[in-house]
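Work Package 3 (structural annotation) set out to generate three-dimensional models for the target panel prioritized at the project kickoff. During this period the team completed the workflow that converts sequence records into discrete structure tokens, so that structures can be stored uniformly alongside our sequence database. As a representative example, we reproduce one entry of 289 residues exactly as it appears in the project archive.
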Amino acid sequence: MIEELARLARRDGPVTVLKQARVLVVRVGDVVVKAHPPDTDERALRARLDAARKLPGIMLAPLGLERLDGRLVTLWPAGEALTLADVDAGTTPWEQGGRLLARLHARPVTAGLPPAGGPSRLRRAVADLAAAGVPDPVAAPILAAYASLPPHGDDGARGHDEDGALTHGDWHLGQIVRHDGEWLLIDPDDLGVGDPAWDLARPAAWYAAGLLGPREWERFLTAYLAAGGTAVSADDPWRELDAPARALTVQLAATAVATAAKAGEAPDEVAQALLSACERIVAVTRAAT
């Protein structure tokens, strides 16, 4: 399928496989071609692509939508991904990420846009634990933390009422690229109406698990609030972040241990840190009841 995707790019040059998992992503010259999962909802994807086109200066706009062997395929201008030097520099990626999210959350919701995909990603990650054959002692703290989540930590309640905002749905540093000299968000696959705090929840979960330093976290959060971000309160951001951050901790832990199990490996240090965070979630919940 890689060769067929490359032909859709209508470019000459070497073909580079950027990702091969639930999605297949290849780059040919200055075009990136992405084959979406076979069960992708075409109507929802088209709505998300249309919304991305209406967000200049915030999101990278798609070049087109094709079909190949029953799968939906999107074409994109190739952006310049973050490098280790960018991340090590500290200020640029985290601050730019905060500013872009603040601008995204301030934009009006496009009519017909589906719910943001964050909560469904959580459910899928937990379901993958059983499919990956994760041993019960390893899966136990994840499942217990999942069971302890409040309802809006799982079903994205704010995403289904009039208070829902335009939300990326799967934000992390890998969702930022440079294109034509500006930083932009990419990957609208989970773009939709939801609780914008979910877009801050992944770095919040990393921070709570000790995987993101306080300096980086403060730069990200400060930039978000300074740019007018409304997902969290300036005086107590954890009031809105606590439940989504717990949910993302569960999702990240489930994904990490399932990936290790599929590879026949033990959970690495990152997975262990997330497992410990799940244990703390369970302990705090029990202490509060």
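Residues 153-161 have pLDDT under 50 and may be disordered.
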